[in-house]
Write a structure and sequence with these properties.
mainly alpha
């Protein structure tokens, strides 16, 4: 049985038969019997419902979802069917988010990857609406991110990454060079795609992990470049 069909089966158990509204028979987020396919179904539903949050599921949002959630060729049809079903309404997204949180509550790095993916989908059409931001904020609270962590993720995606690399790394501007290097190495080690996969990151989110690692490297490089410029005498600059 391929992964797409297993997801459809899990979706039917979690949210009722495919012919109905997927939010009308939600599993309690505290049910302990949600397997990997059920968690995958919850991830798909979160992406689909976020795409619907601004009223219309655009082609760009569907493409963004495919970039975030990878699947095997044989699983694409089943995943697409469930995505279309879940995208009929935003109702019930909190229950999906709680399923994901329960699975990864001890893995904040994976929860952050999921939120990164949702921001990626929200930005696919070039703007994050108020309803989309409310969705993202609510999901962040369900994932139990504090305000600073959520702000760092939000700003990284909404255009200030190049202006504020310190926020991407979660550090203050007066941090020492030695401490900066220590924090960077710690983040790089914790977020390296190979290590995340080894520690349980779903294969479907590997693309996103690579993108996140690139953001961390870029922020670190920008801080180093700024500090070199700040310490270079004006007479030596070209």
């Amino acid at each position: 049985m391929n992964f797409g069909i297993r997801i459809l089966g899990a979706a039917a158990r979690l949210f009722g038969p495919p012919s109905g509204d997927p939010s009308r028979k939600e599993l309690s987020p505290f049910d302990k019997n949600v397997g990997d396919a059920g968690v995958a179904a919850a991830l798909i539903a979160l992406g689909a419902k976020l795409a619907k949050a601004d009223g219309v599921v655009s082609r760009d949002e569907i493409c963004a979802f495919k970039n975030v959630f990878q699947s095997t060729k044989e699983g694409e049809d089943g995943i697409a069917r469930f995505f279309n079903l879940a995208a009929q309404t935003t109702l019930g997204f909190e229950a999906y988010a709680k399923i994901v949180y329960r699975k990864y509550k001890h893995r904040k790095d994976i929860l952050e990857d999921v939120l990164d993916g949702l921001f990626h989908i929200a930005l696919a059409d070039g703007i994050v609406t108020d309803t989309e931001m409310d969705f993202l904020d609510a999901t962040g609270r369900i994932f139990k991110f504090d305000e600073r962590t959520f702000s760092r993720i939000r700003i990284a995606h909404l255009g200030r990454a190049s202006d504020d690399p310190y926020l991407i790394l979660g550090i203050d501007e007066d941090i020492t060079h030695l401490e900066l290097k220590r924090v960077y190495r710690q983040m790089a080690n914790a977020n390296h795609p190979d290590r995340l996969v080894a520690r349980g990151l779903p294969a479907e989110l590997q693309k996103l992990a690579t993108h996140k690692m690139a953001m961390i490297n870029k922020a670190y490089a920008e801080i180093l470049a700024r500090r070199r410029e700040e310490t270079t005498p004006l007479s030596s600059r070209t």
